[in-house]
Design a protein that fits this description.
By secondary structure, this protein is mostly helical. The protein contains twelve helices and no strands. The longest helix is centred in the C-terminal third of the chain and has 33 residues. The radius of gyration is 22 Å and the shape is globular. About 30% of the residues are buried.
């Protein structure tokens, strides 16, 4: 199939909706197949919220080898495709490039492979790594999105943070590598079990892989589709908190909703009235939920403070790196040819 045939707008739309359908069907498959995992003996843990409840009591050589080995293959393959796309394709298209089809196929293959790996050996990267590494990778991704989207929608109520164009351009150029790591690492961190939190999480990971496979297409930069990637974490985080029973759902629900009110909705070209109504609805919901215990209302600011602080720190570190590099070039100029 030649490049012209692949570069039809309909092909990208078909890939998007087909990928969403695949994500939903495969999430259903994880749920249906879960009883087959009952044969595994799970570590009962220490009863604390820090302990990850879905690891084997006795880890196996093949479980560890396949979890880390398949993760590494998945990770390196995607990085290779991103590198190829940036250096050989370069231009955005309204349709699919051949490399997009390769990326979709690679992610689909490893999704199926992870399902098989879970049902043969169960253990994933969680056997060796803290849950905070998985959560932190996704938070880091969301913070970098704030930097990338700063100019288009602003950081605070439509007003952009004072990030230099050089910093934003750097984030845009290299974000694919970071996002691919965050998504693939988190994907292989969890076994494919069917708790509500896992099902929501895997569906979210599938959508992120779909987005990551559609680089250099108009779909990849569609504002509504990009927003979907950000707001899905609201449902996932809230659902996980509810089923953990730790009474943290308010922090996730109102924290991620605050991100929408403060930042995300301002890139949608909504009318001022619509934005005021959304903000008012948020305030009313907060009053209803927290009126019995106003001291807990500080939960609202935890996630926004973390995300904005990390975004600003990251932008500052990149700017510092450029400053150091510029000073080094100034103090070590290239010799001029005679």
């Amino acid at each position: 199939m030649n490049q012209e045939r692949l570069a039809q707008p309909r092909s990208a739309q078909s890939a998007l909706w087909g990928g969403i359908a695949f994500s939903a069907v495969f999430t259903l498959l994880i749920w249906l197949a879960n009883p087959l995992l009952d044969r595994f003996v799970i570590d009962p843990g220490d009863g604390t919220i820090i302990f990850y409840d879905w690891v084997l009591l006795e880890h196996t050589f093949w479980g560890r080898l396949t979890a880390w080995g398949f993760y590494a293959l998945h990770q390196l393959t995607l990085w290779g495709l991103i590198y190829y796309a940036q250096n050989s394709v370069k231009k955005y298209s309204s349709g699919l490039h051949p490399v997009n089809i390769w990326a979709l196929a690679v992610n689909g293959f490893f999704i199926v492979l992870h399902f098989i790996q879970t049902h043969l050996w169960y253990d994933a990267l969680a056997m060796d790594m803290s849950s905070y590494t998985s959560q932190g990778s996704v938070i880091l991704m969301l913070c970098v999105i704030l930097i990338i989207e700063n100019k288009r929608r602003g950081m605070f109520f439509g007003k952009p943070a004072p990030f230099s164009e050089r910093v934003v351009s750097f984030a845009k150029k290299y974000h694919g590598y970071l996002f691919a790591w965050a998504v693939v690492y988190t994907f292989w961190f969890h076994p494919m079990v069917s708790t509500p939190g896992h099902l929501a999480g895997f569906f979210y990971m599938f959508l992120l892989m779909l987005q990551g496979s559609l680089f250099l297409t108009s779909i990849h930069v569609n504002k509504w589709w990009k927003l979907t990637q950000e707001v899905t974490v609201f449902f996932h985080g809230t659902l996980v908190a509810i089923f953990q029973g730790a009474d943290l759902w308010q922090m996730f629900a109102f924290g991620f909703a605050a991100m929408f009110v403060i930042t995300q909705m301002h890139g949608l070209n909504l009318s001022r009235l619509t934005r005021w109504l959304i903000g008012l609805g948020y305030v009313i919901a907060a009053v209803i939920v927290f009126n019995a215990d106003w001291a807990q209302m500080n939960a609202i600011i935890r996630i926004p403070v973390i995300e904005y602080a990390v975004a600003i720190i990251l932008a500052g570190l990149v700017a510092l790196g450029f400053w150091v590099a510029d000073r080094f070039k100034t103090s070590n100029p290239k010799p001029q040819p005679e």
